[in-house]
Amino acid sequence: MSASDKISAAGDKLKGNVKEGVGRATGDEEQVAEGKMDQAKGDLKSAGEKAKDSAKDVFDR
After folding, report:
1. Cα separation of 46 and 9, whole Å?
2. Confidence class of residue 61 from pLDDT cuts 50, 70 and 90?
3. CA–CA distance, 1 with 39 (Å, rounded to integer)
4. How far apart are CA 7 and CA 27, in angstroms?
5. H/E element holding 18?
6. What are the pLDDT digits (tens) for 36-48?
7. DSSP label at 27?
8. Residue 61 to residue 21: CA distance in whole angstroms
9. Which of 29, 38, 50, 52 could connect to 16 by a Cys-Cys bridge, CB 3.0–4.6 Å?
10. Is residue 32 within 8 Å of 23, Cβ to Cβ?
11. What is the pLDDT of residue 1?
């Protein structure tokens, strides 16, 4: 997983966490949902990059 991909995934997770927190504090359910979606996006990016790294390890042997 490249450094820029890690940063991108972490950024999505952080942005989602902040959105969700602000949404909960203000009672904005739409913002809470957007925050959860951003966090899921970050998780998917991380999983995809880990899968790519694993495939590289297998084929580099």
Report:
1. 6
2. low
3. 18
4. 29
5. helix 3-26
6. 999 999 999 999 8
7. T
8. 45
9. 38
10. yes
11. 57
- Calpha distance 28→49 (Å, rounded): 32
CA distance 47 to 6: 11
Place of tokens 């909960």: 24
d(CA 60, CA 43): 26
pLDDT digits (tens, 9 = 90+) for 1-36: 578 888 999 999 999 999 999 999 999 999 999 999
Residues 6 or more apart whose Cβ sits within 8 Å of residue 36: 16, 20
Residue 21's nearest CA partner among 40, 35, 11 is 35
Nearest to 56 by CA among 3, 1, 6, 4: 1
Task: Report the amino acid identity of residue 28.
Answer: D
